[in-house]
Specification:
heterodimer, A: alpha+beta, 27 helices, elongated, B: Arc Repressor Mutant, subunit A, three-stranded antiparallel beta sheet
Chain lengths: 959, 111
Amino acid sequence: MANRKNTSLPPDGHKESVADKHAKMVSAWRELIRDRAPSEADALGQDEIEEIASMLDEGYQEALISLSAQGLGSRLEHAARESAFERLGDWDELLAKLARRPDVFTTNATEPSRVALPPPTSQRSTVHSTSHLRPSSLPRQRGSFIAMALSDWFRPLKLASRSLWRARAVAIPSILVLSLGLGAAVSLFSLFQSIILDDLEYTDVDRLGVVRINALGRVGMPRISASNVIDFRESAKTISELHLANFPKHSIGEGDNFALVRIASVDAGLPAMLGVRPAMGRLFDESLDVAEEGVGNVLLTHELWVSRYSADPNIVGKSIPLAQKRVEVVGVLKPGQTLWLGPSQSDNIGLWSARSVVQRRGTILRYSAYIRLAQGIPFSEAGTELQALADRGRMEDGEEGERPTYQVVPLMEHLTEDSRSALSLLFGASVFVLLLACINVAGLLAARSLGQRPEWALRAALGASRARLLLGGLIEGFILAAVSSMLGLAMTYLFLQLASRSASLDVPRFQNVAINREVLLFAVLTTVVTALLAGLLPAWRASKSAFSSNVRAGRGGIAGTVSGSTPLVVAQVALALILLAGTGVLLRTLAQLQRVELGYQADQLLTFDFSLNSDFAGDFEGAGAARLELNQTIVRQLEELPEVESVSLTNQLPLGGQNLASYSFDEASRQNFGILTGSFHRIFPRYFETMGITLREGREFTETDMKNPNASVVVSDYLAASAWPDESAIGKHITIEFATANGGTEPRESRVIGVVSEVREVDLRSDQSPQAYLAYGENSWAQDFVVRTHVPPSTLVPKINHMLSQIGPGLVVDDAEAFADRVSSTMGENRLALTVAAAFSVLALVIASLGIYASMAQRVTTRTREIGLRTAMGAQRSDLINWVMQRGLIVTGTGICLGLLASLALLRLLDGFVFGVSPRDPVTLLSVCGLLFIAAIAACWLPAHRASRVDPAIALASE
Amino acid sequence: MFSPALKKGSMELLILALLENRDRHGYEIGKLIETASGGTLVFRISSLYPTLAKLEDRGLVSGRWRERAGERRRRYYRLTSAGRNALEEQKQEFGNYVNAVFGVLENASGK
């Protein structure tokens, strides 16, 4: 007993004063009056009803005491109620007397509560028909019918709001939790809906598709052979149109006005096929606008028209400088109308330019093919037909080598496949957060309904219907959910604002994201479900116990409800664990990705391409000696710039796709290893030095190697180790089969002169693959310059551009990029997913901790008597703390176990997202369990501490 | 039992009288009338409350909700100065009336 010098206040629940208790009872009586005589009650003022209710309660309480000696048992309350009603006397008399007061039944401006309302004829007013007693109310009857209907409708709403306001200690946290949950779900739904579900603004989107060609040498790049295009257009019955597009960056403007703009270089018929309509001017005309070389006439997007041409109303027909050429503007598109054709076109397309690409059979075009299906044809059938046509074309052209496969994919699927799975996953996670929030709030409200118990029990005893009590709970749930969903929508708006400003978001169609009709509909639906889950459940349980026979004036049955809240806490812990585990795995994935050996140094590296003016292009277009010489000139002059440390050139940068070839070795190796498929690059001397790729053995290429570009080869250490595991690769021979322009292959034997470290080529997650480097020669085509510098890479661009214009009048920088940006953008989607997932799990952890805390606090409150008894019987403080902690940790432990089981099943969904770690990574799972356990200990500590300070004298007297 | 007219006439007087020396709440007034009359005058909310309300409307009493420590919230009534005058008047009137009645009764029995 010595440890209870501390005579602090009893726990919260017992601060309730006599006045509060009576107030609840009075409100129950008030309800009862309204229940029994709704029309009459409407005629009375608030004060009047309250005073009458207060008198009734005094009569009831008095009768309870005076009758308790008679041993009525369970009939005591009934008898007390009868006595109270006897005390009331006759309703009709009461109302008749009140009616004679001059001011009661007329409108009184200063006391709006005393507005008289006529009795609704439909209500059970036969017994208490009193309207004849109120002559002054008759003239108002008609006009106030609507007011009456509204008041009937609004009264429960008003009551529920008032009751929530009284319980704001519970209502405000509930609204916070719910609005976070709703905000999360609605935000993710808006992303999901706008990016994945919403149709493109094209005509008949269901019939638009992309031709996908999988073949050697064509991985990760838009390519199609001209022969295919000609054959498909002439013979395919399943498609009605086929058009090509690619997306280069070109210079727009001249001199100081110079800028690089992403353009869509398209067949003249593509805009019409998509169903795009211009706001000004016209679409492309095959005979007027198409250029055979470089760029043709253009359609401006609304955005470029505004930003660059100040929305010039006379722009149509004017000529503008584009890629060192003058082209005519034929039209301006409508606002927001853009070209959604590739999954990674996150740059905004500034303008569309008409070009005729297909000139002769046998060339490979760096273009993607878009089609419109013939009416009523499924995509698969079109794929089959294109495959057959392509096979026949190959036979006729006498091509050999690997057979490419053709597939036609719906445009929507093509656009969204990268973000679809990540967004689905995050949307799923947000639904979990919302569920967690609902369960939490249901728990909070259930705990609160304990406090309402005496009032409810009384109302039940007095004959209030259960439906009415449930309705009250439901309305409270709706109010909470509605307020929360407003806040949630505000959060969604903020989230979208923030996200749209985040530069690292590489999600196609992101500009499309908005709070639209579908999002609002979703918000309404989730609000309804939330209201049902969070409001009806506690109300149903409270009303059930209120109606059960063992409840008397609020005592008993409490323990049952506390244990009834246990499943809610268990569910919260389990849900939080699943979210935390998912985030943990993604976090480890990001850590692994950042640890990935790129194989090169991306910092301080600038990459660029150039483009040519058609007047200047001439001999330089495509491959050839002149082009090679031009490239060499550029490299030499770049080397002389003081900011530049080293310069080189490649036909294919890492993380940009792959040129594939098959490698085979001498006879012995061929038998041992078969044929390896890997990538190859054409490079200039000093490439490895410039990129920071480690040379393990041998040497780099020199100028001399470029004269005979296929004689020597540098291989990656992985390829060397696969082919010659126990000896040096230097001096060995490899046969490389290149894809040729017409789709066949051509074997060439080369001698290994060097071995370099492995490079991540496709993306950061890709597995090791064989890589080979050959010298860049006359027949090589495509170039990306790589420049290592000690200044910020992008600051070099104007200088290089100036330098290029000195070399040739039509030469400008194209596609300039700091290479580090390219590396980090390949992690972009991971980052987004991770940031959102991390936010969700922090939320989940907080909500679950709050749930544990609330449940334990409630338990301590409702068991104050028991705690007092234990203390009185000599329990020590530590015993009491243990008693509460134990209980809390058992509940948490159960939740953790269930959560673990669910996680093991659900984390499999992360298979496509993880890297370098198992989706069911035991380290992550264990840490997450530990984290939850710590949170649970923290959440239980306060209630446990409070339990240890309960004064037995107060506790035992409290009920 | 008393006739309604009599009760009605006396009810106002009783309420005013009970409020003469201290403020009281409605239920207390009813109970006091009931106990002091030895149960002869049974109080009903349906008659007490409208009477109180009418007295208030006429400015003879003023009611105020009050919360006291350890007590429920109740509406307490206080006699206004007009109420005090009315009480004096009614006492006088009732006394005169009772005297008159007794006078008649005595006369009748004295015959």
